[in-house]
Amino acid sequence: MYDHYRGAFLEALTEAVATSGRPTASVTPRRIAEVLHAVAEGWKHRVADRPAFVDKLTMAVDVALRP
């Protein structure tokens, strides 16, 4: 069951990157999503609550998709 949620999260990230309208240069949306997913897994257990997690992941997205 965990793998199902993990896969769904990765797919959602891939779709969000692909439809963001932000340039990804030569890196595919899937590869960016995989990096963001790894970051999310690491921060998931190190933040106090969901808002802190969202803030951290938002920062990671900004870094990954900066022009």
Task: Report a brief summary of the structure.
By secondary structure, this protein is mainly α. Helix content is 72%, strand content 0%.
Helix-strand string:
HHH
Largest sheet composition = none
Q: With helices defined by DSSP (H or I, 4 residues minimum), what is the helix count?
A: 3
Query: What is the helix fraction of residues, given as a range?
Result: over 70%
Feature tags:
3 helices, mainly alpha
Overview of the molecule:
By secondary structure, this protein is mainly alpha-helical. The protein has three helices and no strands. The radius of gyration is 12 Å and the shape is globular. The termini are far apart. The mean pLDDT is 88.
Helix and strand topology:
Elements: H1 2-18, H2 29-44, H3 50-64
